[in-house]
## 1
Amino acid sequence: MTTQKADITEDELDEMLNVVNTTYGYDFSDYSRASMQRRVSRFMDTAGYKTAVDLTFQLKKDRSVFDYFLQRITVNVTEMFRDPAFYKVIRQEVLPVLASYPIIKIWHAGCSSGEEVFSMAILLSEAGLLKRSRIYATDVNPYNVEKAKKGILPLNVMKEYNENYIQSGGQNDFASYYTSLYNNAIIRKDLRENILFSQHNLVTDQAFNEFQIILCRNVMIYFNRRLQNRVIHLFNDSLSTFGYLALGIKESLLFTDLQNKFEVVSKDEKVFRRIK
Amino acid sequence: MAGNNTNIELITIGGSAGSLPVVLKIIKSLPASFKVPIVIVIHRQRNVSSELVKILNNSSASKKIIEPDDKETIGDSCIYLAPQNYHLLIEKDRTFSLDYSEAVLFSRPSIDVTFESAARVYKKKLAAVLLTGANSDGTTGLSTVVHRGGIAVAQDPSTAEYPAMPLSAVRNVKELTVLSPEGIVKFLAALMSNGK
Ligand SMILES: C[S@@+](CC[C@H](N)C(=O)[O-])C[C@H]1O[C@@H](n2cnc3c(N)ncnc32)[C@H](O)[C@@H]1O
């Protein structure tokens, strides 16, 4: 009844990721195996590859196969004001503190198509801080980055985002933040003015600035503990003292060796602050 | 049934509509000294901040139910509940991975996803139980469990408030053990005394 998924062994996956790394410089070897295995077998099903060996061969010899693979292999699902209670904490506890900085530098690492970034821009705008914010939003997936730059979302999900927005403590007319055009919602231009979207790979790229807050939500769940630890080091190097680090609500600093460099701002919403 | 005399090291339970009372019954009847960890996946309504953990915890004073964080290690004598809005996967080193990818059969968490990934890791040391529900999630998962040598159990559809989900398994999974809720309780107790 249900479709049979392509099966792929541990060794085949190793070989495939190895080829991808040596040929194109994208290192997925420290991604969570269970989820990577699912993604690859899903990719094989939708793109019509019968065996892992076949896909690995095509990946090696055809750049366009890799481009499509890269586009589909990361999990890009995102929402505006996802986890409303999280945004409430940002609104009530974090922004009032950030308000004391003349320039507020923000990094969204793993921003996908930008929904989280637009949500933040709305909060900043409502707090009167957007004009002096510099928002850097990065993702490994170039397809996501291009999409995010356009600032166009499907109109049919805005109703749900509106509910999230209200739950997060939003009091304005959510529809005033975008213009509707056919089936699209275009995020207002002035909200996007101070956002710079670009490609950045957390696995291989370096720190590039110092931030007052870094958001990296639901990205590191796709990494194993070793890679998570490395990325937390990268964030630590990229945060100003007393800078904030916001993770997804099911992510934790417990498995990193830097946990004592951070204090907990919100235990449930996984907001931390660098104290050393 | 397959693998009856091998030691079970993980039990997964999947339920949808109507499954809460059955899950409660199972948890309450677990022997106090149970060791084998249990991973429960229940479909819940999205974004309704869920009271499920509280309900489960209130009803089983001595046993605590945990919604695991990403990369948490699976511990003996622990009962885990898949957090809402994420798929719950299991890694080879017996830690959890959470995954925010697309819903499967309209479900996230998906029972299939958890059963399949548990089966890859635990193989014949896994027992998976599918309870009442109104869709067909879990069938593919149970097939994978059997395929990897584990034990697949479904609630007897005639005892299910919503029979569709176990019925789908009965129709499609070979080597399936079909039991009433009481039967499931006894069966798990027996596994527990054999296991770990
Ligand atoms: C599930 S989305 C999370 C989006 C958003 N932060 C949220 O919580 O809604 C995960 C994102 O992480 C990105 N990602 C995965 N690996 C990455 C890496 N090595 N460097 C940067 N971004 C990465 C993916 O491309 C994807 O857009």
## 2
Amino acid sequence: MDCRFFREQIVLESYDELDAAAKKSLKAHLQTCRECEQFQVNLNETQQTLDQWEEVDRPTDIEALHEAIRSKSLSWPPQLPAWRWLSWGVEACLILVISLSALAWIGVGVKWEDRGLTLRIGQEAVPEITAQELVRLLQAERHATQAEIVKQLQGALDEFSEQLQVHLDERQKQTNAQLTLIYQGLQSQRVQDLELIRQELQHLAGATEAEFLESHRVLEFILASHVSGIQKNTE
Amino acid sequence: MEKSDEALMLQLQAGHLRSFDTLVRRWEKPLLNYCYRMVNDITLAEDLRQDVFLRIYRSAKAYRPTAQFSTWLYRIATNLCLDTLAKHQRRKETPIDVYLESESEGFDEKLVDPSDTPDAALVKKETKNCVRSALARLPEDLRVVVTLRHYNGMKFREIAEIVGGPISTVKSRMTAGIERLSRMLSKQE
Ligand SMILES: [Zn+2]
């Protein structure tokens, strides 16, 4: 084998990307070839010189980035993924379920209740962060700068966000399990009882009877189309 | 426990915006340095970094965790850097290393280790400028490979995925790139 080949091996070895056998044959060549040995020395020097261009650290202006996203009219937050592998009927059902679930999730917000301002996740209030606490926080920080108060509030929001994420993760698990059931039911045609699916979906979406009624007509149409689609296919 | 990039992308997909910010914070430094070494202009590199993040955001909807996030990120960055370099060459016909002198001195000063003696600091700065100039003169296909491997620690297998070519080509480009740099840098010393 020629030196050209071994030069490449020398480079690979210097980045720790050479296997043991190749290392062994390279070592043997280096013992007999002064030119390649010199190449290895030069390579080390070059690499050390390259390291003189150290990394720079300029943090991203996150606010400017968010602003750029808004100004380019990119939706914020991003859309939910499309469920391309499902047939359109089931896909439509899933989208409906997801939008209803999203409705429940939109329940997240700041609300005045008897005990004051409360941040809510879905149906469950989060008692940890109340108006009193926010006020106490602000009072304690009365002599603080506005930036500091904002920072404190940001901390509270971060904590809330963490809790929300745990909730969403849990919700996602439930959703996946229930969607699988529904999907399997539709696929196997074992579940043909629209009422059963309706109850399942309503429960899944965490919607009230009234909220669900409006969507029900749409759902019925979608399911009916889907069932007739299955029947046509099996005829 | 720290979440993987892929897990954060899936959370972003589900609308969890903080995941995007976490990804930005995690990747801002290596990404900036990659773009900087590719285009040799820090301001341009910052713009490119923002563009990469915008594209990541825009593509979140279609993201599938089939490939490593890092290779995807660097593929976007590489394409944007190469496009930018092509545009500059068409517009100005000026080699990109004219930027060397145009950058603010204050920025470079920050890179100097305060423990260095004045002489050592000067030598370090000069060496750094030599490296910048040598890398800028390297053909782009070699520069991509050298930068990703030497500075960003990507494996040859990953670089092959990023540039979309066989791993053998990546390895021979690395060798050719290092050989050329070695010649350019030894001449300057
Ligand atoms: Zn040899």
